[in-house]
Specification:
Elements lengths: L8 E5 L6 H15 L5 E5 L5 H8 L4 E5 L16 H7 L3 E4 L2 H6 L4 H13 L3 E6 L3 H5 L3 H12 L5 H4 L2 E5 L13 H18 L2 H5 L3 E4 L7 H5 L6 E4 L6 H11 L2
Parallel strand pairs: 1-2, 1-8, 2-3, 3-4, 4-5, 5-6, 6-7, 7-8
The structure holds phosphoenolpyruvate.
Phosphoenolpyruvate binds next to strand 8.
């Protein structure tokens, strides 16, 4: 198997944007633009928008995800939402380990692992984010950081469960900054993640495994990034808030 037989996944991460009414309107605008996609199309939205998003996406090829989930099934965790609750609501995907969670909300490799475990237990599909900071990049330790984050997150995950996980390589310095990894670097580091998956599981599992790139991917640079053999789609922040731009990225992944 190779890129030609791995279906790309283009996922939007709306972050803390859009009310339920704005969610419905944006998805209504996106639906006709992405309906012929030859890739999976996912929108990860704030908890409060999930029902509006699922309603608006009904009958379309757009799948809906959350932006995080807690590791416990229930309990005294004010403000949190469990994987079990997401599953009960009909949510299909969840982003775990986004760098903004790691940076601003104290997420560690261990809590990321615990959240992955909880999501898998509930049958959710996981978009697991890994990526180096600018300092780590300058120190030349990107590969080590990616391998460490990947290995800890996947501890105890079976090869069967791995089929429900996508990894998004997201250099922290590229998220929301307008700076993008070169297509060559995205390909190289996505390849390092794939090699790590091969080491942990099998060559077959790694070949079938989807590794996205995320970090200022937009309508202009998507085609080049997505042309690389190890770039199986993208996790898109800013550009996923604009129907036209998001659809151009979806089209670039559908070639
Ligand atoms: C993201 O939030 O995962 C992301 C990649 O954001 P942006 O595309 O805005 O850099």
């Amino acid at each position: 198997m190779n890129k030609a037989t791995r279906k790309a996944v283009i996922a939007g991460n709306w972050k803390m944007n859009n009310t339920p009414a704005e969610t419905a309107a944006l998805i209504d605008a996106m639906k006709p633009l992405v309906k012929d996609a030859d890739c999976d199309v996912v929108l990860c939205v704030p908890y409060i928008d999930l029902f509006a998003a699922m309603d608006a996406a009904k009958g379309s090829n757009i799948k809906i995800g959350a932006e995080n989930c807690h590791w416990a099934e229930k309990g005294a965790f004010t403000g949190e939402v469990s994987a079990k609750m997401l599953n009960a609501c009909g949510v299909e995907y969840v982003i775990i380990g986004h760098s903004e969670r790691r940076q601003y909300f104290g997420e560690t490799d261990v809590t990321v692992h615990d959240r992955v475990r909880a999501a898998l237990n509930e049958g959710l599909k996981v978009i697991l984010c890994v990526g180096e900071t600018e300092t780590e990049n300058e120190q030349g330790i990107t590969a080590e950081v990616l391998r460490k984050q990947t290995k800890i997150a996947l501890q105890g995950v079976s090869e069967e469960e791995l089929k429900s996980i996508i990894i998004a390589y997201e250099p922290v310095w590229a998220i929301g900054t307008g700076k993008t990894a070169t297509a060559e670097d995205a390909d190289k580091y996505n390849g390092i993640i794939r090699a790590c998956v091969a080491e942990l599981y099998t060559a077959e599992a790694a070949e079938a495994f989807t590794v996205q790139y995320g970090g200022s991917m937009n309508a202009k640079n998507a085609a080049e990034l997505l042309s690389k053999v190890n770039v199986d789609g993208g996790l898109i922040g800013g550009a996923s808030l604009k129907a036209e731009d998001f659809s151009i990225i979806v089209k670039a992944a559908s070639i």
